[in-house]
Amino acid sequence: AFDYYRVYSTTMNVSGTSCDAQWSLEGTTVSDAFLASNLPNGAARCFAVSAVSRDGHESTWSSPRQDTPRYDARNVLVYARDVRPDSAGFLFYDEAPRLYGVVTSSTRTGLDFTLERHADGTLWFNPARSDVLMSLYGAVRDLTSIDRASPSSLASVTIEAVPGIGNVFSTGKSDGVHYGAVRVAFMGQNYVVFDWSYQSGLTNPELSRVPTGD
């Protein structure tokens, strides 16, 4: 007797620990997929789903699931510092001009990481500040497979750039700690092409692109 699903959403409360009481209908769908668009990056939101029967009865709602949209971009090219130092530095977020995903000089202050070549020719992501921490996430088919950072796994380390491998970062900005991710898409002898994501929500470890649920 199933007819369609109703998808609801609401904001998180100011503490970020529970859903607000004012729910609204995002839309309906007859499939197991639904796209909620025009959501502000960095703002956590709760989602719930119900089923409606052909005679108009609505089921109880699913348990709320929450997620937070974030910024991302694809196919960013950064050179090794020994080849092109003017394009060997990267910032997830450049605070002064409010720009995301900035490739810039490796000598600039405030960088998140640089791309360095080791003696054996391999290329490595190198944290540019003491408050930039990294961890290996592992092999991922796509940037969106990196769903959230694990703060306890982050450390002050360098990580080799390897195609298909994802890495997670934490970086200190003026308002506190933010999390980001990088997935290496392609490598040349002197450069790395990668996809990146950055969570503008303060201390929010969620890095998946869209809300997920059962």
Can you describe what's shown?
The structure is a single chain. This protein is mainly beta and 214 residues long. 0% of the residues lie in helices and 45% in strands. The protein contains no helices and 14 strands. It has strands at residues 2-11, 24-29, 45-53, 65-67, 71-79, 89-94, 99-104, 113-117, 123-127, 133-139, 159-160, 165-173, 176-187, 191-198. The strands form three sheets. The protein has a five-stranded antiparallel sheet, with no helix packed on it. Strands 7-6-8-9-11 form a five-stranded antiparallel sheet, with no helix packed on it. A four-stranded antiparallel sheet has the order 2-1-3-4, with no helix packed on it. A hairpin with a 5-residue loop joins strand 8 and strand 9 (123-127). It is elongated, with a radius of gyration of 20 Å. The two termini are 20 Å apart. The model is unreliable at 210-214 (pLDDT under 50).
